């Protein structure tokens, strides 16, 4: 059995009940076969892949908090510090009832290669909790965030591990966590990114993941002799990534006709009213039924279904494994040209394969959504030099980074004889830099 297959088997055996982690490892290792197989003996001797798939550190802790009725609750907190070969651990904190160690490990593993692709000095990590922020009062959110940070603060710092937002963790949660970190550690430092502008946040960080997704989608289309103008776009999700993806797509001249949340989805044939969506999701924190009520020409449907709608470009921006083989077939039938992932691993393995085999351009999340973490790294730079850059400066750096990412993944795929396979290109380009750093630093 090849070294790669042995490691995939080992990961499955040693980490049972973690299917998302298996899926992420399989996808990356399959893509780097060309590199590993050519030098298998050295890779085995240095246990390189064992070191790659085992996190440097996993932290799991109790998070007690008190609700508005005075009742105590206990959630589980996690931080997986996966790989620090190229910089301090960096990756978001997910607050969602589906969170478990397997989900955090899959996200942390993906983050290693994503962060490497940005070209910036950041290692891979991820964390979160099975806490559900939905329906909680501000005081309950604060109680949870303070308790979560009381434990997490022992393991993070501006030069060791710098968490950020993710599903369920937005500006409000980052604010409460930062306040608690500062109180307990007595340090005003860039330990979290996604901070408010008044206390060290970066302009354009809120927009970065969604905008970055569109910058790379545009680069992809231009490379194939097309552009965004006049394209019909389907988006899933209605959170941070989805909202700013919709906004930038519209700025580039496309029409976005869908969005969704975990209970239903909207079809708006006139194009999503992004100001209304922001008001509903960012300010009033309501469900998408409120969108339908405010915009009578739109349709609201329960459940999932955005991929049934005819579109040129599909941007899944909600959560993992939300675009299935059935959806991929429907997209193909409807003449879709490109799928670029805004969320992390939103396309199932069989759907990804189908899209690639059927000539639909496909960019995986670790490349197409890396604008968020890249801008987080720019926030770290601003915090270190005690300066704030203008929106335009950050946005233009972001655009440059995304265009570079596209050029690099495209070149890596070509170099190894897989032109147009951006999954392989992203994994190879991300892996090469981490490999080089791991080799240089010895067996640690
Ligand atoms: P948000 O919490 O802001 O929004 C998530 C959106 O997806 C919401 O509309 C949510 O609906 C929906 N959603 C979440 N879970 C599910 C589910 N199980 N089924 C259906 N819908 C669901 O998160 P973000 O926009 O920040 O993150 C979205 C994705 O992008 C995630 O995969 C995240 O890891 C990834 N990502 C985020 C980055 C960032 O900078 N924010 C950076 C890179 C990747 P509801 O509100 O009803 O739950």
**What percent of residues adopt helix (DSSP H or I)?**
40-55%
User: Radius of gyration from the CA trace?
Assistant: 21 Å
Shape: globular
Low-confidence stretches: none
Category by helix and strand content: alpha/beta
CATH class of the largest domain: Alpha Beta
Question: For the largest beta sheet, what order do the strands appear in spatially?
Answer: 1-2-4-3-5
Enumerate the distinct ligands: NADPH dihydro-nicotinamide-adenine-dinucleotide phosphate
How far is the N terminus from the C terminus?
26 Å
CATH architecture of the largest domain: 3-Layer(aba) Sandwich
Mean pLDDT: 97
Count up the domains.
2
Largest sheet: 5 strands, mixed
| Number of strand elements | 13
């Amino acid at each position: 059995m090849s070294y790669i297959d042995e490691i995939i088997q080992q990961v499955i055996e040693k980490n049972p009940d973690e299917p998302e982690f298996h899926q992420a490892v399989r996808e990356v290792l399959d893509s780097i076969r060309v590199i590993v197989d050519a030098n298998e003996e050295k890779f085995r001797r240095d246990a390189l892949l064992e070191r790659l798939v085992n996190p440097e550190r996993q932290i799991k802790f109790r998070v007690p908090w008190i609700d508005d009725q005075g009742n105590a609750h206990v959630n589980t907190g996690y931080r997986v510090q996966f790989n620090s070969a190229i910089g301090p651990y960096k990756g978001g904190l997910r607050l969602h009832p589906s969170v478990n160690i397997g989900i955090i490990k899959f996200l942390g593993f993906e983050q290693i290669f994503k962060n490497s692709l940005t070209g910036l000095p950041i290692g891979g990590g991820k964390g979160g909790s099975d806490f559900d922020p939905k329906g909680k009062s501000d005081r309950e959110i604060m109680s949870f965030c303070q308790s979560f940070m009381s434990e997490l603060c022992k393991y993070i710092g501006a030069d060791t591990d710098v968490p950020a937002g993710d599903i369920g963790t937005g500006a409000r949660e980052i604010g409460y966590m930062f306040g608690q970190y500062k109180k307990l550690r007595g340090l005003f430092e860039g330990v979290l990114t996604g901070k408010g502008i008044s206390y060290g946040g970066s302009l354009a960080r809120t927009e970065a993941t969604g905008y970055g997704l569109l910058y790379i989608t545009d680069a992809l289309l231009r490379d194939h002799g097309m552009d965004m103008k006049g394209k019909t776009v389907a988006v899933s999700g209605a959170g941070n990534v989805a909202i700013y993806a919709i906004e930038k797509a519209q700025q580039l001249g496309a029409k976005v006709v869908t969005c969704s949340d975990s209970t239903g989805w909207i079809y708006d044939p006139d194009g999503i009213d992004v100001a209304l969506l922001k008001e509903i999701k960012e300010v009033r924190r309501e469900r998408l039924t409120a969108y339908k009520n405010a915009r009578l020409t739109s349709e609201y449907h329960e459940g999932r279904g955005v991929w049934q709608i005819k579109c040129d470009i599909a941007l899944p921006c909600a959560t993992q494994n939300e675009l299935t083989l059935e959806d991929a077939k429907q997209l193909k039938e409807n003449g879709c040209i490109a799928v670029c992932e805004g969320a992390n691993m939103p396309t199932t393995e069989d759907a990804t394969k189908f899209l690639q085999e059927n000539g639909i351009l496909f960019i995986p999340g670790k490349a197409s959504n890396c604008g968020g973490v890249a801008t987080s790294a720019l926030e770290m730079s601003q915090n270190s030099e005690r300066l704030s850059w203008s929106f335009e400066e950050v946005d233009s750096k972001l655009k440059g980074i995304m265009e570079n990412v596209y050029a690099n993944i495209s070149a890596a795929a070509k170099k190894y004889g897989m032109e147009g396979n951006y999954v392989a290109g992203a994994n190879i380009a991300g892996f090469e830099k981490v490999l080089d750093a791991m080799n240089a630093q010895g067996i640690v």
